[in-house]
Amino acid sequence: MPGMTENTSSTPPVAVVTGGSAGLGRAIATALAGRGWSVVIDGRRADELTAAAAAIGTGRVTAVVGDVADARHREALVASAQSLGPVTLLINNASQLGPSPQPNLRDYPLEVLSDLYAVNVLAPIALSQHLLRDLAESNGAIINVSSDAAVEPYPGWGGYGGSKAALDQVSAVLGAEETAVAVYAFDPGDMRTEMHQQAFPGEDISDRPEPETVVPVVLRLIDERPASGRYRASDLTTGAELEAAL
User: Fold this and answer.
1) pLDDT over 90, % of the chain
2) Which of 131, 143, 176, 185 is the most exposed place for a label (fewest CB within 10 A)?
3) Could you tell me the pTM of the whole model?
4) Which residues are catalytic?
């Protein structure tokens, strides 16, 4: 897979970044476009997605409006990316938190939980299925954005955390099955994002780092290509876990 250096070839590498209108998705898309990639982003809110693409640079970024839980949208997203060339990177960043404040599992509406898993688990699987051939042929990578809620039993986080735990396991199994593709479950840690604010309604989260601070860690993961597995941004920042995997 091409490294994250400035691209000079006539055909830029292609990445799909879901949830690219804001937060970590937008920050990653901005960095990739700045390195010469063609990036396809999606999101449900058309105005925000269009504004993000314009701010990043429409020559490098293609915006496809829609919900990753919608099969027809996923097909359109994949078709848009493949029209630019073989896809070498899939970042499943789009996530749904669920109700806010978050209910305990005893009170969790099952129809809402089903929607949560459709976005956080089934959509990443479906997009991976669509793109695995491209990714295998290009020695590409999949990054599934996870959370510490996947491994820590925080009260009230059973819906979101359970979906991210499922995503972690899906990532691990896919990495074992698809040896030509690097598959990562990536825990970025707390960030100052809209979804994080929704998780803590009424609280001041200004002490959380901006998503842009996590991007160098994502780029290092892509560049250095350790073994498939689960990685935390805090470990990659210090280098301990990444160096052990190389």
Assistant:
1) 76
2) 176
3) 0.91
4) 160
